[in-house]
Design a protein that fits this description.
alpha/beta; 7-stranded mixed beta sheet; 3-stranded antiparallel beta sheet; 37% helix; binds pyridoxal-5'-phosphate
């Protein structure tokens, strides 16, 4: 059996006809500059998230960068975030001219440890940027309370959390702005690159619209310097086809997660879903001290497994020029050596998930010499 970490071909087969037809219509119309697909997808996605506005941009990185700038964050400012994330989170803060300040993560959700935020707030702090990693939201209420008390902005990195919920509200509707990636492997992925900023602030929405289009307020009238950060019309056509399927794909992911939860041996640490959250399992991440051994074992059996992420941001070479890693984030650093992402995509069958669990049980038995009850 060959089971990759992600298989996008299976999903494409089911929607191919509609995708090709919408791409063809977009090309026939030749309205490729912020055309009807971008506009319609922006309103559909805003509604989906429970936000008033959505602004389509070129990637999740751009969404984070422009949302920060639109919130008034720039040189001399500090933004509190996590190191245990994809590098783009910190990169966007640096692109905005500000300085990321890292706090450690909670070992159950792998998201920002909210009890450690307040001590990092100082006169330069302007925003908190929680990441809803793997598809599970951060614990937002303590973050929003601190933001209120210290007059900080809250920008959600929801790049892995399309449809995830916190106390019944969707990611992207919880902070001042929410930032999404439509990188092709995401729960809602384009067939190329794409991103979105959601907000219920008319001012932030207006700033983002102008920033993504060279600061234009009218044709060739530029109020300030922006970038070319527009969402591509063809990608918006693809995303419009996919969005109505997202909830059913999320349910499949949740069913697969349940199958893993039930089938994996007890010595493997499984992902938690907090009582206040709805997990959308962008990734199903387990933990074991013998992570590298398990990964090699699975690879031998034809099963793809990944690490998200093998090196935290504060230990990356790229971070050296921005202050270096002369501090330690013990939970982040411990998790980094133990986490393993198992195959997860809506079309993975329950039988395949069962086979993966079986292989993992074999591994535990082979290493411990003790049979697991089946
Ligand atoms: C947590 C997180 N933040 C930001 C990004 C950046 O998104 P993009 O790759 O679309 O620029 C990603 C995507 O990989 C991500 O997973």
């Amino acid at each position: 059996m060959h089971i990759p970490l992600v298989d996008l071909k299976r999903q494409y087969q089911g929607i191919k006809k509609e995708v090709l037809s919408e791409i063809s219509l977009a090309l026939d119309g030749m309205q490729l500059f912020l055309g009807k697909n971008v506009q319609a997808f922006e309103s559909d996605f805003a509604r989906y998230c429970g936000a008033q506005f959505a602004v389509g941009v070129g990637s999740g990185t751009e969404a984070l960068h422009l949302a920060l700038v639109a919130c008034g964050i720039g040189p001399g400012d500090e933004v509190i975030t996590v190191s245990h994330t994809f590098i783009a989170t910190a990169e966007a803060i640096v692109l905005a001219g500000a300085r990321p300040v890292f706090v450690d993560i909670d070992p159950e959700t792998y998201n920002i440890d909210t009890s450690q935020i307040e001590k990092m707030i100082n006169g330069k702090t302007r925003a908190i940027l929680p990441v809803h990693l793997y598809g599970h939201t951060a614990d937002m209420n303590p973050i929003l309370e601190l933001a209120e008390a210290y007059k900080l902005k809250v920008i959600e990195d929801a790049c892995q959390a399309h449809g995830a919920e916190y106390k019944g509200r969707r990611a992207g509707s919880l902070g001042d702005a929410g930032c999404f990636s439509f990188y092709f492997t995401k729960n809602l992925g384009a067939y190329g690159e794409g991103g979105m900023i959601t907000t219920s602030s008319p001012e932030i929405a207006k700033q983002c619209r102008m920033l993504r289009d060279h600061g234009q307020e009218a044709k060739y009238r530029h109020a300030f310097m922006g970038i070319n950060g527009r969402l591509d019309e063809i990608q918006a056509a693809v995303l419009r086809v996919k969005l109505p399927h997202l909830d059913e794909w999320t349910e499949s992911r949740r069913n697969i997660a349940q199958a893993y939860d039930a089938g994996l041996p007890s010595s493997i640490v499984k992902p938690q879903e907090m009582a206040w959250a709805k997990h959308v399992y962008h990734l199903y991440v387990v933990r074991t001290p013998n992570r590298d051994g398990l990964r090699a074992w699975l690879e031998e059996k034809g099963i793809g497994a990944g690490m998200h992420y093998p090196i935290p941001t504060h230990l990356q070479d790229a971070w050296r020029d921005y202050g270096g890693g002369d501090f330690s984030l013990p939970v982040t650093e411990r998790m980094t050596g133990e986490i393993l992402s198992l195959p997860m995509y809506p079309e993975l069958t329950i039988e395949e998930a069962g086979y993966i669990c079986e292989c993992i049980r074999d591994f535990i038995e082979a290493k411990s010499g003790v049979a697991i009850e089946r």
